[in-house]
Amino acid sequence: MGDEKAVPFSVLCSMYNWMAKSKSSSKKRSKFRKFLDNYCKSPSDYFNSIRLILPSLDRERGSYGLKESVLATCLIDALGISRESEDAVRLINWRKGGAKTGVNVGNFALVASEVLQRRQSLSSGGLTILELNVLLDRLSATENRAEKTGVLAELIKKTNAQEMKWIVMIILKDLKLGTSEKSIFHEFHPDAEDLFNVTCDLKLVCEKLRDRSKRHKRQDIEIGKAVRPQLALRISDAAAAWKKLHGKEVVVECKFDGDRIQIHKSGAEIHFFSRNFLDHPEYEHAMSNIIKENILVDRCILDGEMLVWDTSTNRFAEFGSNQEIAKDAKQGFDSDRQIWSDVAFDILYVGDTSVIHQSLKERHELLRKVVKPSKGRLEILVPNGGLNAHRPPGEPCWSLIAYNVEEVQKFFNETIENRDEGIVLKDLGSKWEPSDRNGKWLKLKPDYIRAGSDLDVAQFLVGLAERSVPNIYPRRFISFCRVGTGLSDDELDALVTKLKPYFRKNEYPKRTPSFYEVTNNSKERPEVWIESPEKSIILSITSDIRTIRSEAFAAPYCLRFPRIDRVRYDKPWHECLDVQSFVDLVHSSNGN
Ligand code: ATP
């Protein structure tokens, strides 16, 4: 024992199984402690094991590029089974079941282990923790799907279905052990969480804190090491937010809808760290000159949101553009019309000093001193200045100091009308704390989404009519969004009862009725079809006014946060909205 090369992965699997089954968090922790004491001796043992227990925090390996759907195809190929076989369909359709609906539907790892069980032996394949890490390194290092499949085939050879199930969960970076990362860290070392929060470096934490009895001096943030961001607490309405921040000096800001990015600048060296602690060099080409010219100090860390600026409209581009530009940037294209733009709303480090302990008000002053804003490229979000000075005439400002709840409500209403995602309220006297979500920042968004599991109870794939000839009943309908919320349970019951006699089973991948058009995206195919459009019912839908370009649905745009407003039993089926009218609506609301 203790020779890490020899520690079988099956030992870790027994610990996973035990932890997942046990309800008591102290028992989970003591099992983890026993594992550490018995099997981790050398410095690298700790990291090699803990990265397999907290896979979402392991940035050494980056991303595997394997979300469930791609992983399904790679596993099917690695197992050498036909993509049309029942098991392959089950894996592809893991969310809703294949021909036979199994009990594990909705849990990819369980569906995978069901499929694997029929093909792998019961006894452990003898894979060691070290071998697994080497293979996972290979899996993340290649972008080539065939090579990924090869690594998975090797893993399958060296494991049984139980072990492989856990490996699938490691790849998906969620082990569902029912224990928080906080308690894992705490059991490992009392200072582990703090050190991780300011370094985002699991390897370093494992190396520095191996000895539980030696306390570590609290470490501050450093340039060049990602720090876990300060977060916002969700709050239901303006009144509740105001109450929570009672007596504080409050700034309200627009909640921009881009990517949270920390810019670390040290001389000519610049890093762009995202929420998952990864460095994003793709911003470098577009942003480094601006940063060098407009940041007036040699060393600093800015916290902000990376957005896309549309030079033709002189506005931030609509939600979704980030992903599109990122794709283009990867392919080497450079769009002149749409460019990256950073909105810095905070500053964490200046010169050789961390400033997170200063108040937000003081940090705003530092932001003003350190950054020379450049329109549409590098902006600062501070009250009475910065980005506010660049707002288009007649449009609401982006941040202001609020003196009463009415002002917060008004600001919220304006940002929503202006198609922003919501607002963030901040205590101007507060310091910036890594990974904190205790209410120094509050986020308020239009509450379109009914939380909880009832979201999946009934969802409808809705379509738009395609009218080839005016005044003739439409013959084709194209999918454009999925909607499940908005109706009371009784209203929903009534609707389902009415439609139920006309439900026809969807047998993926074939047999989409000829009058419906959907994409091949398996997630966006219904479990049942309505037998024919005449039997269907019109739903009136409200949504966030922004629309998104759609790939998942057949229509060119889909809705954000759709919600059923009313069931229109009164309207005949053929009077439903058609594609052209919808597209016109989108264009007119976008001001085109
Ligand atoms: P959400 O999905 O609501 O963005 P989240 O979990 O990603 O939630 P939260 O901490 O809950 O993140 O919300 C804060 C996020 O909002 C930040 O991570 C940042 O990306 C974004 N954001 C946009 N504008 C601001 C702003 N003015 N101040 C702080 N955060 C902002």
TrEMBL record:
Of the GO CC terms on this record, one is: DNA ligase IV complex
An example Gene Ontology molecular-function term:
DNA ligase (ATP) activity
Question: Might you name a Gene Ontology BP term for this protein?
Answer: nucleotide-excision repair, DNA gap filling
> Domain of life of the organism in this record?
Eukaryota
Q: Which residues cross the membrane?
A: none
- Kindly list the cofactors needed: Mg(2+)
Keyword Ribonucleoprotein in record: no
- Its Enzyme Commission number(s) read 6.5.1.1
> Is the keyword Nucleus assigned to this protein?
yes
Instruction: Please classify the protein's predominant subcellular localization into one broad category.
Output: nucleus
Can you state which reaction this protein catalyses? ATP + (deoxyribonucleotide)n-3'-hydroxyl + 5'-phospho-(deoxyribonucleotide)m = (deoxyribonucleotide)n+m + AMP + diphosphate
- What subcellular compartments does it reside in? Nucleus
Q: Locate the ATP-dependent DNA ligase family profile domain: which residues?
A: 344-462
Which keywords annotate this record?
A: ATP-binding, DNA damage, DNA recombination, DNA repair, Ligase, Magnesium, Metal-binding, Nucleotide-binding, Nucleus, Repeat
Q: Return the similarity comment.
A: Belongs to the ATP-dependent DNA ligase family.
- Report the protein name in the record: DNA ligase
